[in-house]
Write a structure and sequence with these properties.
13 helices, alpha+beta, 6-stranded mixed β-sheet, 20 strands, disordered N terminus
């Protein structure tokens, strides 16, 4: 069975958990709950093809790898994913390797595209015949401050009401769940960065077997990959830039100017499969629980892509939420759901700090303070490269702190 047939199951009128959003966080939550014998219906406003068309990061922490294994969807990841034991920082024209395994207790990361994670979760859900409603219109969440929440939506011209015990808001930054919370009950923290990332995906071999993060006078660049034959590259660009103004040739020319001679020599160019400009922001909303509705993933927080924390943070949200719901149904204990928001936010703010710090370290910032900011960067980089403690700090945060860190 394929993802395209995932919504073939009849739409039920009741469920234990209504999950809004069929991105990786919603699908992973549904799979973990299914493994524990808890019923869940996933409601998604987009089509399966649209969901699979989203091009996102693909650097997985060990915690995320373990969760995908726990959900029973890790086989293809282990077969096709690329294990990375380090990455390079390109600074002042010289590359310096951060040895993750040596500095972070033998840990590594896995390069496996978010699209592939989503596909694996979709296929597992479809194969189990679990209900997922795609292309749902006018989704509304109701009664989440009572003991009897519900979700209403339209599908194929008919209106449906889904009664449930809990609602999981896994519907992203622009989703309906956070928007349905009274504004007085939310506190939002946000920083918008004065540049974006121009990304290009191509069916070309990676320039290097591990990622290269570059800080150059022309701006930041990242050489990433999805597989041994598919590469993903990024350039820091002004927010005023339009993707239509960047031809493939112009992108490759600019990337070469931001690489060291060895990387330039090994760079293989080709036509773009996808090209886009993504703005960067740090965003957190507090709290993440509102009665019987919970926010997880991008619905509750956004990180800059520097350091690839977005998907990994969403996965740990889902781990905490699934554990809390499993505890509720198994033991009728509300301890886990009562502590969900505080437990998640402690980990979220640590990842937000790292992503903010790494972004500050690697990008050029415009404005009156640009000169002194560059000096601060140089001093910080000098410390990182010549201090084992400094290198260990970046390595430990990059591979992901343990789930129980600081608990």
């Amino acid at each position: 069975m394929t993802a395209s047939t995932a919504s073939a199951a009849p739409i039920p009128a009741t469920t234990q958990v209504a999950i809004i959003g069929a991105g990786p966080s919603g699908l992973l939550l549904g799979q973990l709950l299914h493994k524990a014998g808890i019923d869940a219906v996933i409601i998604e406003r987009q089509s399966p093809d649209y969901v699979l068309g989203r091009i996102r990061a693909g650097v997985l922490e060990q915690v995320t790898i373990d969760l995908l294994d726990e959900a029973g969807v890790g086989a293809r990841m282990h077969q096709e994913g690329l294990v990375h034991g380090g990455f390079d920082l390109l600074l002042d024209g010289q590359r310096h390797r951060i040895d993750l395994e040596a500095l972070a207790g033998g840990k590594h990361v896995m390069v496996y595209g978010q699209t592939e994670v989503t596909r694996d979760l979709m296929d597992a859900r479809a194969a189990a015949g679990l209900p997922t409603v795609y292309s749902a219109a006018h989704v509304q969440v109701q009664g989440f401050d009572t003991a009897h929440p519900s979700v209403t939506f339209e599908k194929d011209g008919a209106t449906h009401t889904l009664q449930c015990d809990f609602i999981a808001g896994c519907d992203g930054f622009h989703g309906v769940c956070r928007a349905s919370v009274p504004q007085g009950a939310l506190r939002n923290y946000e920083k918008v960065y004065p540049f974006g990332w121009l990304g290009l995906l191509s069916d070309t071999p990676p320039v290097h077997h591990e990622l290269i993060y570059a800080n150059t006078p022309r701006g930041f660049a990242l050489c990433s990959q999805r597989s041994a034959t598919r590469s993903r590259y990024y350039l820091q660009v002004p927010l005023t830039d339009k993707v239509e103004a960047w031809s493939d040739e112009a992108f490759w020319d600019e990337l070469r100017l931001r690489l060291d001679p060895e990387a330039r020599e090994h760079l293989v160019t080709g036509p773009s499969l996808e090209k886009s400009i993504a703005p960067l922001r740090s965003f957190v909303t507090e709290p993440l629980r509102f009665g019987r509705m919970f926010l997880a993933g991008d619905a509750g927080h956004i990180v800059p892509p520097t350091g690839a924390k977005g998907l990994n943070l969403a996965a740990t949200d889902v781990k905490f939420l699934s554990s809390a719901l499993i505890e509720f149904y198994a033991e009728r204990s509300e301890a886990g759901i009562d502590g969900y928001s505080a437990r998640c936010l402690k980990r979220i703010w640590r990842a937000e700090r790292f992503s903010w710090w790494f972004t500050q370290l690697m990008h050029n910032f415009p404005g009156d303070d640009a000169a002194i900011a560059a000096r601060f960067q140089a001093a910080e980089i000098d410390y990182l490269l010549h201090s084992e403690a400094g290198s260990r700090t970046i390595a430990e945060n990059y591979v992901g702190l343990p789930l129980d860190f600081g608990q």
